[in-house]
């Protein structure tokens, strides 16, 4: 049986950040993920915003970790190479009443120590973002806010952690646990068993169930659903900064988000639901989102929508993060209730959990780490023709375009597969193939063939996102041989 | 970096591009055809059913046979081909030399210059996001064309039982194809009160196999976690889904056949002006876009019912490319407008005094309609039309003598039962 110092349950943004932190020490760490790939739970449907640290009071743990995490992304990007841009956030008000809330948030940001905040009148806002509706009254500008590709970020953290010796177990759904001496014995639903001295519960939506399995604190995670709609990059409403309305009590509101890769996302809604897997979208919500964003950016059209999806925020009573050493289960660290601004806070969550493990007796001995853990991998859409030609000389796949909408080469698909992403969604999240306007209509067949060629799988074994999400169910009968 | 130079570069080797290439190459103009796929023929190659060629070749062919004829004709005329080649960028501004940047795994990056460019990129299928079907995102949802390619070109079966959303022609053809492949089709669901596809396809692909067609119905939800498990169908009452009369059909596969969108992202990059109704470029009587020397034809211009019509239109563009290369210009042109009950008319300009064939799509379903052609508001021509419906393209030839004085030409449909 494999033995580890630490087992992290859940390879979402929190678990992955913890794994990345722990990979810098002389430890044996396991990262357990119930899905076929990492980041496939809560994290993949994240809005992808690096928040600016003004939404929450510093009295909350989430605000403190958000402020700290926000500052850590450049360093991480340098080490791990993922798409991230500090393109700034605008909070916009459409009435004097809303301006009052803007002033409150502005002062809260100042008090939190956020740098370079700027209170803006109408003219300044329209200068910063000419696509804004001329009805805007004022707002404020947060230059240190940014956008990130959430799945790429999780992939990079996990890949970096793996380079540092962390062992990843996918399709490992924790089903049972038992404390034996110094060790937790952890059994998966498929009967696979490992042992670890410490356990970190970063199970996202299922952190409550995992806590129960380990006999730790009882609490309930309630999913708060958010629907998002993705717009074609040719939309008239292509903005350069993240546009926030004045927030409400339950959510930061419906936003217009320019993704790092140049598409526009609108959403999310905020709706408490019962079923943790209820990630369906509804036409009522599409219309609600459209109405609200058109109020801010009038050029947005329903005809620009290329796809929609929904994600879940794992919320807990009290609405703060719950990150602590368990008072009931030995050597068990809770990382639960990581809703917004969890992604922004994640680098700091990783450090915070590492410190908690140390406090709980785990011996941390630093090891020599390379400055850049993952070398830069450049996609052809970011290359000059000369650069593509130079790459082509070594590998013709760089000049074979597989996904025409997002301009993805075969070399990028192969790279994704070699980095361990062998489902259609995994490849989509790594490369963007299938994320464009045709939504995989033209490239799906080609990608299935490349997966089969690279991995030796049969077409029937290829899935959308693991489990039973098969694409192909059989072959056409070819007659008697 | 490979540098190439041609008189004519045709982008897209489908029913349109091949037809243009044959025309320009036959006239001795150096012609290059570029296609992204591993083969020429475009979507024709996955259309293994017959019904092609009745107009263009006067005989009934399958899609691949039709493509092969077009390709051989173009090759025999001297056209050259670059396959597995994707045009990444365009510089069309220069009137003499259009510059294209293309990639292929055989030659790497290529800079191609041409005196004239033919846009023949065809179209793509509207997907789930475009038609906004709510619900979850399980595996098992395919556009009809993708399913067609999987089955007909790779021999891969996409499911065990299917519901088809939309009654476009590809969806209808696929209803029959799935049935023949042992995948029962439980329903075809069409939001409109009439089918989107050609009548002959309704008869041959649905009626002959007893596949139920739900007109005026919409799929209000797709259920399933990993793979599609069922769809929820609601009738439209006063244009709104009536959830009280919803019913559920179990299936593991959903095919979408809800219309086609001309693929003009490249055209837009090159500065070509797009018609917001058709999604294709605005063209004059020569099928020339707003950029001199850049032409368009086939489904990239407007979605055709038949491949034959796409080829005819592209061949016409090819003949005018030759005019253009020979230094001729269309001269002064006047605008064309779509009036009542018509969605669009193409071309968008005409040359006064020249006999011109116009193509248009109706917005209405009528058994007995009249097409009225007016010049600057004054009626110049009237044509009786039987069985007018949106899926079937209308065409009319306007004699040159009627338009000799110029002015705005507009077309309108009068419904029957006046």
Structure in words:
The complex is a heterodimer of chains A (481) and B (418). Chain A is α+β, with helices and mostly antiparallel strands and 481 residues long. Chain A folds into three domains: 222 residues, FAD/NAD(P)-binding domain (3-Layer(bba) Sandwich); 150 residues, D-Amino Acid Oxidase, subunit A, domain 2 (D-Amino Acid Oxidase, Chain A, domain 2, 2-Layer Sandwich), CATH 3.30.9; 82 residues, BFD-like [2Fe-2S]-binding domain (Arc Repressor Mutant, subunit A, Orthogonal Bundle), CATH 1.10.10.1100. Chain A is 30% helix and 23% strand. In chain A, the strands form five sheets. In chain A, strands 1, 2, 9, 10, 11, 12, 19 and 20 form an eight-stranded mixed β-sheet that branches. In chain A, strands 13, 15, 16, 17 and 18 form a five-stranded antiparallel β-sheet that branches. In chain A, strand 21 and strand 22 form a beta hairpin. In chain A, helix 1 crosses helix 9, helix 2 packs across helix 9 and helix 11 packs across helix 12. The longest helix of chain A is centred in the last third of the chain and has 18 residues. Chain A is globular. The N and C termini of chain A lie far apart (47 Å). The mean pLDDT of chain A is 94. Chain B is α/β, with parallel strands linked by helices and 418 residues long. Chain B folds into three domains: 188 residues, FAD/NAD(P)-binding domain; 132 residues, FAD/NAD(P)-binding domain, CATH 3.50.50.60; 81 residues, Immunoglobulin-like, CATH 2.60.40. Chain B has eight helices and 29 strands. In chain B, the strands form seven sheets. In chain B, strands 1, 2, 5, 6, 7, 8 and 21 form a seven-stranded mixed β-sheet that branches. The relative contact order of chain B is 0.13. The mean pLDDT of chain B is 95.
């Amino acid at each position: 049986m494999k033995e580890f110092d630490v087992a992290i349950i859940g390879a979402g943004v929190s678990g992955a950040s913890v794994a990345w932190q722990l990979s810098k020490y002389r430890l044996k760490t396991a990262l357990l993920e119930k899905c076929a790939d990492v980041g496939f739970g809560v994290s993949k449907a994240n809005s992808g915003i690096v928040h600016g640290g003004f939404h929450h009071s510093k009295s909350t743990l989430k605000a403190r970790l958000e402020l700290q995490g926000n500052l850590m992304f450049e360093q991480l990007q340098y080490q791990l190479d993922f798409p991230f841009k500090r393109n700034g956030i605008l909070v916009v008000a459409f009435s004097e009443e809303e301006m009052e809330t803007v002033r409150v948030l502005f002062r809260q940001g100042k008090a939190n120590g956020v740098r370079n905040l700027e209170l803006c009148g109408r003219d300044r806002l329209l200068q910063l973002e000419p696509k804004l509706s001329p009805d805007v009254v004022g707002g404020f500008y947060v230059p240190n806010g940014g956008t990130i590709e959430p799945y790429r970020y999780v992939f990079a953290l996990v890949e970096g952690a793996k380079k540092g010796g962390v062992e990843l177990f996918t399709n490992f759904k924790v089903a049972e646990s038992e404390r034996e001496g110094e060790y937790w014995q952890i059994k998966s639903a498929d009967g696979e068993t490992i042992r670890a001295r410490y356990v970190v519960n970063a199970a996202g939506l299922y952190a409550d169930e995992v806590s129960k399995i380990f006999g730790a604190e009882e609490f309930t995670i309630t999913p708060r659903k958010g629907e998002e709609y993705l717009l074609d990059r040719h939309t008239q409403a292509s903005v350069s900064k993240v546009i926030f309305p004045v927030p409400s009590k339950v959510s930061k509101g419906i936003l217009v988000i320019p993704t790092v890769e140049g598409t526009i996302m609108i959403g999310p809604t905020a709706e408490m639901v019962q079923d943790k897997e209820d990630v369906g979208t509804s036409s009522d919500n599409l219309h609600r989102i459209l109405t609200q964003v058109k109020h801010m950016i009038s050029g947005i059209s329903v005809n620009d929508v290329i796809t929609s999806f929904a994600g879940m925020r794992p919320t807990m009573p009290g609405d703060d993060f719950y990150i602590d050493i368990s008072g009931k289960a030995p050597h068990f660290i809770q990382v639960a209730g990581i809703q917004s601004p969890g992604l922004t806070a994640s680098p700091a969550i990783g450090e915070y959990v590492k410190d908690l493990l140390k406090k709980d007796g785990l011996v941390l001995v630093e090891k020599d780490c390379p400055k850049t853990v993952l070398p830069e991998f450049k996609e052809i859409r970011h290359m000059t023709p000369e650069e593509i030609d130079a790459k082509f000389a070594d590998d013709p796949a760089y000049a074979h375009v597989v996904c025409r909408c997002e301009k993805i080469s075969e070399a990028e698909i192969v790279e994704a597969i070699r980095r361990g992403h062998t489902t259609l969604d995994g490849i989509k999240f790594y490369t963007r193939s299938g994320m464009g306007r045709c939504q995989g209509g033209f490239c799906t067949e080609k990608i299935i063939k490349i997966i089969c060629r690279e991995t030796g799988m049969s077409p029937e074994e290829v899935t959308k996102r693991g489990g039973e999400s098969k694409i192909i169910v059989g072959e056409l009968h070819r007659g008697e041989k | 970096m490979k540098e190439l130079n041609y008189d004519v570069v045709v982008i897209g080797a489908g029913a349109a591009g091949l037809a243009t290439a044959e025309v320009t190459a036959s006239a001795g103009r150096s012609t290059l055809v570029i296609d992204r796929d591993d083969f020429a023929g475009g979507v024709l190659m996955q259309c293994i059913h017959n019904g092609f060629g009745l107009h263009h070749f006067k005989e009934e062919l399958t899609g691949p046979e039709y493509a092969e004829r077009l390709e051989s004709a173009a090759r025999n005329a001297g056209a050259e081909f670059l396959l597995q080649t994707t045009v990444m960028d365009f510089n069309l501004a220069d009137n003499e030399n259009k510059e294209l940047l293309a990639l292929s795994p055989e030659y790497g990056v290529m800079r191609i210059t041409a005196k004239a460019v033919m846009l023949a990129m065809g179209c793509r299928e509207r997907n789930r996001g475009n038609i906004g079907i709510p619900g979850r995102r399980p595996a098992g949802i395919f556009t009809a064309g993708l399913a067609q390619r999987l089955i007909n070109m790779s021999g891969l079966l996409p499911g065990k039982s299917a519901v088809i959303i939309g009654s476009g022609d590809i969806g209808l053809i696929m209803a029959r194809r799935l049935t023949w492949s042992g995948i029962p089709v439980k329903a075809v669901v069409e939001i409109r009160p009439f089918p989107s596809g050609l009548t002959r396809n309704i008869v041959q692909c649905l009626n002959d196999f007893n596949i139920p067609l739900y007109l005026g119905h919409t799929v209000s939800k797709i259920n399933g976690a990993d793979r599609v498990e069922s769809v929820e169908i609601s009738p439209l009452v006063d244009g709104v889904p009536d959830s009280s009369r919803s019913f559920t059909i179990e299936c593991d596969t959903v095919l979408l056949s809800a219309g086609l969108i001309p693929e003009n992202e490249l055209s837009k990059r090159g500065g070509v002006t797009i018609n917001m109704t058709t999604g294709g470029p605005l063209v004059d009587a020569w099928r020339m876009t707003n950029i001199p020397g850049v032409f368009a034809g086939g489904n990239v211009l407007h979605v055709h019912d038949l491949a034959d019509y796409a080829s005819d239109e592209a061949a016409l563009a090819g003949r005018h490319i030759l005019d253009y290369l020979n230094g001729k210009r269309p001269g002064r042109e006047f605008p064309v407008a779509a009036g009542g009950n018509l969605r669009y008319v193409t071309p968008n300009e005409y040359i006064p005094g020249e006999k011109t064939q116009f193509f248009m799509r109706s917005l209405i379903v009528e058994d007995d309609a009249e097409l009225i052609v007016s010049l600057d508001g004054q009626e110049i021509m009237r044509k009786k039309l039987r069985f007018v419906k949106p899926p079937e393209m209308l065409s009319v030839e306007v004699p040159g003598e009627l338009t000799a004085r110029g002015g705005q030409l507009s077309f309108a449909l009068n419904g029957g039962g006046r």
